[in-house]
């Protein structure tokens, strides 16, 4: 699965485009970083790719996933996962139920779904914590649950919007490694919006500087 942007621009209705036309190919399992000054349109770019932009924006150009054009599809048919800064977990659901919520409907049957959630907990280093209330987890643990929840939906690409910015430097480095490894294991393309040069370096892929 490759994510390709061709001459992509996004403009608030009646205004000029936020950034010059973008061209980019993100290979499966790799992370391309998106940097740029505040307000240049990084989050708006991700929303446009994911299909979450309101009608007050005009998107031009093309977004392809394995050659298939995404822009005419609604968000739910694009299969593109998004993870935001301070990714929120549902406070009224246990950690395991938060993960189950993200799980793709393609995983059928109670036993298979339970096994998939247990595997995700294992992966996130949270064995035995499925019954916990998310509020009792550390910031790093919550970030890992949020990432696993995004990946359990089996997205065909993933967009990460400052997902590490709420974490202290030590946790940040560990969650970052975990995230990039998970993207590689899922073999899907990822875009990472970040203000942090260390994030971009650790991502290992090209850096797209807007503005
Ligand atoms: N509904 C809207 N109508 C017009 N302009 C908007 C609307 N929503 C956002 N904008 C503008 O679009 C621009 C891009 O915002 P966006 O949040 O994508 O920037 P960003 O690069 O992600 O910034 P930051 O790094 O601060 O998160 C901003 O200048 C913002 O003021």
> Which distinct ligands sit in these coordinates?
adenosine-5'-triphosphate
Structural class: alpha/beta
Query: Roughly what is the average pLDDT, rounded to an integer?
Result: 93
Strand content: 15-25%
Order of helices and strands: EEEHEEHEHHHEHEHE
- Supply the number of structural domains: 1
CATH arch. level architecture:
3-Layer(aba) Sandwich
Strand order of the largest sheet: 6-7-8-3-9
Oligomer: single chain
Largest sheet: 5 strands, parallel
How would you name the CATH homologous superfamily? P-loop containing nucleotide triphosphate hydrolases
Structure description:
The protein has about 210 residues and is of the alpha/beta class. It has a single domain, classed as P-loop containing nucleotide triphosphate hydrolases (Rossmann fold), CATH 3.40.50. Helices cover about 35% and strands about 25% of the residues. It is built from 7 helices and 9 strands; from the N terminus they run βββαββαβαααβαβαβ. Strands 6-7-8-3-9 form a 5-stranded parallel β-sheet, sandwiched between helices. A 4-stranded antiparallel β-sheet has the order 2-1-4-5, covered by helices on one side. A hairpin with a 2-residue loop joins strand 4 (about 55-65) and strand 5. The chain is globular and about 50 Å long. The site of adenosine-5'-triphosphate has 11 residues, from helix 1. GO terms for molecular function: ATP binding; ATP hydrolysis activity. This is ATP-binding cassette domain-containing protein. Keywords: ATP-binding, Nucleotide-binding, Transport. Pfam families: ABC_tran.
């Amino acid at each position: 699965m490759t994510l390709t942007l061709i001459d992509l621009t996004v403009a608030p209705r009646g205004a000029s485009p936020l950034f010059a036309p973008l061209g980019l190919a993100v290979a499966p399992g790799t992370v391309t970083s998106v940097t740029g000054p505040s307000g240049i349109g990084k989050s708006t770019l991700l929303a446009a790719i994911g299909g979450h932009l309101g009608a007050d924006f005009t998107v031009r150009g093309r977004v392809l996933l394995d050659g298939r054009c995404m822009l005419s599809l609604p968000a739910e048919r694009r299969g593109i996962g998004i993870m935001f800064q301070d990714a929120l977990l549902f406070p009224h659901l246990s950690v395991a139920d938060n993960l189950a919520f993200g799980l793709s409907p393609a995983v059928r049957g109670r036993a298979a779904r339970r096994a998939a959630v247990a595997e995700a907990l294992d992966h996130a280093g949270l064995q035995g914590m499925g019954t916990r209330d998310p509020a009792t987890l550390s910031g790093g643990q919550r970030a890992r649950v949020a990432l696993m929840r995004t990946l359990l939906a089996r997205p065909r690409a993933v967009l990460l919007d400052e997902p590490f910015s709420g974490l202290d430097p030590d946790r940040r480095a560990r969650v970052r490694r975990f995230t990039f490894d998970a993207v590689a294991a899922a073999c899907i393309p990822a875009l990472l919006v970040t203000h942090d040069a260390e994030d971009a370096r650790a991502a290992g892929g090209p850096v797209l500087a807007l503005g």
